[in-house]
Task: inverse folding
């Protein structure tokens, strides 16, 4: 059984992570970097398929042959698709059509399902999968209402890592993931702070364009008067890029490199400290709001993502919020592991795959 592996694919904007996982851990991992100039010739990200696939297939074949492995599954990161229940989905024609057309967003993760399907074909597998895509949507109806008819709160979330981390914390603490409640803060280039009730994300800020604290590069929630004024002075695409890529810590401190910002804070840079205290403060308020939304019935507050490696940052968030519920720190993103686990749950009959 240890020789049975799934191929796991997680495409990013300028790189493609891929790995081979058995039921216990990764037996091979690699990240292929793609020069920006090579990607600029493509329009839709789905047009990068042949370019990216060719760069990783040979490496997968070589690793499988050298290690004497048997590929029993193929799984890719789920791209922005129509709103879905959480879980593992069998890749079918409808899903591939939406990923290829970039119907819901022109995002690199669209390639995850496309590459997984091709891997399955090449390894003569009957099925391939995606797991907990970013448009996983189990929001309470009351959470969708924004304050103005015609503008609805959207569920866009780092569902894959958030659910995987909460599942691990539940297992470590002897709790049933499907009966436990958590508030999970995924803190990276984008920020998702989510309420999980019985394994489902029932509320979350839209960390890309809309709600919640500012991030290393995103604006988060802003005073409406200032937003209105800005929108009347700049084109829509320019405003969207500003809010999604050039705001937050980057706008205030000139960088979105969290390690550099951590260094400046620890060295006593007063401007960095001032902005970083606001960053912590906004995150803590958001965590507290979701604890209130769950009426205090919270089995744990979990901090995850790349920013959680900064120990002082995690300790400060614990001081703000740790009195509300048990506090856990799970640094980094564990998306490759989460994808493999989702695939094996289906392969081993622990979960029935959903249909798109």
Result:
């Amino acid at each position: 059984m240890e020789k049975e592996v799934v191929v796991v694919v997680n495409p990013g904007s300028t790189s493609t992570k891929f790995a081979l996982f058995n039921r216990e851990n990764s037996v091979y991992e690699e990240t292929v970097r793609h020069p920006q100039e090579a990607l600029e010739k493509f329009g839709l990200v789905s047009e990068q398929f042949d370019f990216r696939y060719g760069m990783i297939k040979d490496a997968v074949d070589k690793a499988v042959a050298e290690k004497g492995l048997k590929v029993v599954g193929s799984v890719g990161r789920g791209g922005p698709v129509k709103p879905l229940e959480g879980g593992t989905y069998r890749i079918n024609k409808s899903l591939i059509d939406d990923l290829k057309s970039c119907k819901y967003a022109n995002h690199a993760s669209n390639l995850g399902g496309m590459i997984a399907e091709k891997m399955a074909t090449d390894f003569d597998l009957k099925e391939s999968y995606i797991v907990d895509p970013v448009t996983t949507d189990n929001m309470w109806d009351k959470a969708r209402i924004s304050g103005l008819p015609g503008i609805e709160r959207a569920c866009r979330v780092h569902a894959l890592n958030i659910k995987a981390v909460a599942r691990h914390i539940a297992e470590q603490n002897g709790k049933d993931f499907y009966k436990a409640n958590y508030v999970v803060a995924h803190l990276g280039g984008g920020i998702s702070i989510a309420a999980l009730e019985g394994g489902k994300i029932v509320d979350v800020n839209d960390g890309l364009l809309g709600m919640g604290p500012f991030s290393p590069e995103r604006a988060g929630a802003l005073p409406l008067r200032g937003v209105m004024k800005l929108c009347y002075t700049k084109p829509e695409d320019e405003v969207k890029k500003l809010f999604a890529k050039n705001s937050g810590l980057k706008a205030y401190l000139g960088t979105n490199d969290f390690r550099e910002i951590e260094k400046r804070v620890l060295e006593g840079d007063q401007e960095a400290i001032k902005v970083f205290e606001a960053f912590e403060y906004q995150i803590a308020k958001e965590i507290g709001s979701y604890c209130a939304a769950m009426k205090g019935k919270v089995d744990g507050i979990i901090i995850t993502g790349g920013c959680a490696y900064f120990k002082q940052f995690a300790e400060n968030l614990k001081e703000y919020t740790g009195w509300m519920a048990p506090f856990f720190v799970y640094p980094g993103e564990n998306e490759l592991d989460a994808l493999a686990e989702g695939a094996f749950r289906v392969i081993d009959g622990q979960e029935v795959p959903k249909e798109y």
